[in-house]
C-alpha cells in the first residue's frame, strides 16, 4: 500500500513549512493593496489602476509596452509590481494548434505546467497550483515526482493571464479570442494550497482592472478529497465547480490509488461533496481515470452508480494517459463503453473526457518530468 502523504490543509497555518516564495506581484494584492504599494513608492495612487488595467484588462505583461506610463516610473513600478514569475522553457502545440502546453521555470528553478485548450465555443486553461504534488497517487506523473512547494497566488494567476493573452492574439484558430474557463487540474492538489488558491480564484473573477473578470461558474477546482478543505470551500460564498478525483468507489482500491483515502474514506469524502453541492447549487464533477484491469470492472461501475444515483453529480471518465515506464495503462474502449452504459443505466450523467495533447505529454507532470530527465542526461554527459 502507498504510504499516506502528509497534508497541510492550510499551508499558511502556524507551524506549516514555508518554501522559498517569489517576490510580491500585483496579482498577489487586491486593488487597494496595489494602491498602497504605489503610494509607498511616492507615486500617485491612480498608477496602480493603470498598471492593473494593462495586466488584467489588456493582458500586457511586458512593462515596455505600457507606454502611457513615464519611462522612469514604468521601470520602478514594474520592479515592484511586475517581477517576472514565469520563464518559458517549452511551449508545444498539437490538435492543429487548439491545444497548447507551456512548461515554466519559476524563480527557484521549480517546473510547472499549464495547458490552453480551444473549442468552438470557449477557451479553457488548465493551471497548476503547486510545483509537484504531495498526494502520491501512483498512476500520476506529478504525484510520483513529490511536492516541491506551493505556488504563490500570483504564480497561479500569471499562468491564466499569459494564456489569456495567447487566446486574445488569435493564435487558437476556430476558438473565441477570449479566455472563458479555468480549471485547477494542473500540477498539485489545489486544496492543499488553500489560501492562495482561493485568493487566485477571487483575482480571476474580480472585474478588470482588479482581476480577469471571469464567471465563477466557469472555474473548476479539483481535489483528491481533503474533507476539511472541501467543507471550508463550501463556506466561501463562491459558485465554482468542485471536481472530486475519486478513481475508485471502494475503500480497498482507493486506499491504493488515492492514498489520502486512508485518512478520509469514500463515504466521508462523498458526504462533504454532497454538502458542497447543497450549499452552492453546483453539480459535483466526479473524476474517474479508467485504468486497465484496475478500476474498470463492471461491478465497480455498478457500485459507483449506486453511490451517485439521485445526487447532484456528473461522472467524467478519463482515459488514462500512461506515463513512460508505468505499469498503468488505459482501459480498452469496449470496457470503457460498458462502464459508461452501466452508469447511465443507473441514472448517472456520464461523459468521457476528450483526449487532448497526448503527443505533447498532455497529462499533468509529464512535460516537467521529461525536462528533468533531459537535464539529468545533460548533467551526466558534461560531468
From TrEMBL:
User: What is one cellular component GO term in this UniProt entry?
Assistant: cytoplasm
Enzyme superclass (EC) = transferase
UniProt key word Transmembrane helix: no
Domain called Radical SAM core: residue spans: 119-359
E.C. code:
2.1.1.192
Where, in this chain's numbering, is S-adenosyl-L-methionine bound?
Answer: 188-189, 222, 245-247, 321
Q: Indicate yes or no for the key word Cell cycle.
A: no
Primary location recorded for the protein, binned into one broad class = cytoplasm
Give a Pfam family name.
RlmN_N
Tell me how the cofactor is bound. Binds 1 [4Fe-4S] cluster. The cluster is coordinated with 3 cysteines and an exchangeable S-adenosyl-L-methionine.
User: What task does this protein carry out?
Assistant: Specifically methylates position 2 of adenine 2503 in 23S rRNA and position 2 of adenine 37 in tRNAs.
* PANTHER family for this protein: 23S RRNA METHYLTRANSFERASE (PTHR30544), RADICAL SAM CORE DOMAIN-CONTAINING PROTEIN (PTHR30544:SF5)
Q: What is this protein called?
A: Probable dual-specificity RNA methyltransferase RlmN
